[in-house]
Specification:
CATH class: Alpha Beta
CATH topology: Leucine-rich repeat, LRR (right-handed beta-alpha superhelix)
Mean pLDDT: 79
Structural class: alpha/beta
CATH architecture: Alpha-Beta Horseshoe
Helix content: 40-55%
Distance between the termini: 51 Å
């Protein structure tokens, strides 16, 4: 039997829809509060999270909002794909999607919209993104405006790291964080070899599978003078 919204859900949905309509053009602080409410106050089984995300998406094109913080909301690929479709018509420059349930499918769709979006800062740490998602993000870097990209605590291996390294020289990135993934010396060496060709000021690689005894000289030359994360 299909789930029928109860009176409490309808009342909650109506309340937030009214507030969003009245208070749109919110500050980043307000959006962070909305994200907190989504996580802490509204049980996902009541369906309010999806309803509120839909309202946010629909209002983005007419909004002056530049920052949207949606961490810890169990956002899936399905919900991210719908959000990504609205990015080209929005003014968002900061998008925070850490600690959700995004994998390669969502990451690929998001990457495809980057060249048409205004995003400069993108947080995707602690999701389930693997090499396919990382490679697509890398391929879109040269035609995007991204300067900060966080991919910590995902499932990225050397294949993803190598592709990111190859595309960095033609990108605008200044900060790239790949900590707590599955990168070995192979991917780390490629990043080290490319460092002299691009403008990174921050590179995060801690808690991977890097030994680097045989390649320490590369990192001593290229990384130790950077603000490693």
């Amino acid at each position: 039997m299909a789930y029928e919204p109860n009176a409490k859900r309808r009342k909650t949905k109506s309340y937030f829809e009214k507030k969003l309509t009245e208070m749109w053009h919110p500050t980043a602080k307000w959006c962070y509060y909305v994200a907190f409410v989504l996580k802490e106050k509204l049980p996902r089984e009541h369906g309010v999270v999806s309803d509120l995300l839909r309202m946010v998406r629909n209002m983005l094109p007419s909004s002056k909002l530049t920052e949207l913080w949606l961490r810890d909301n169990q956002i899936t690929d399905t919900e991210l794909i719908k959000l990504a479709e609205m990015l080209p018509s929005s003014n968002l420059t900061y998008l925070y999607l850490a600690n959700n349930q995004i994998d390669d499918v969502g990451a690929i769709k998001l990457a495809e919209t980057l060249p048409r979006s205004k995003l400069t800062h993108l947080w995707l740490e602690n999701n389930q993104i693997a090499d396919a998602g990382a490679i697509k993000l890398a391929e879109m870097l040269p035609s995007s405006k991204l300067t900060y990209l966080w991919l910590d605590k995902n499932q990225i291996t050397d294949a993803g790291a190598i592709k990111l390294a190859e595309m960095l020289p033609s990108s605008e990135l200044t900060v790239l964080s790949l900590s707590r993934n599955r990168i070995t010396d192979v991917g780390a060496i490629k990043l080290a070899e490319m460092l002299s060709s691009f403008k990174l000021t921050g590179l995060g690689l801690y808690n991977n599978r890097i030994i680097l005894f045989h390649s320490f000289s590369l990192f001593e030359k290229h990384i130790l003078n950077r603000n490693c994360m």
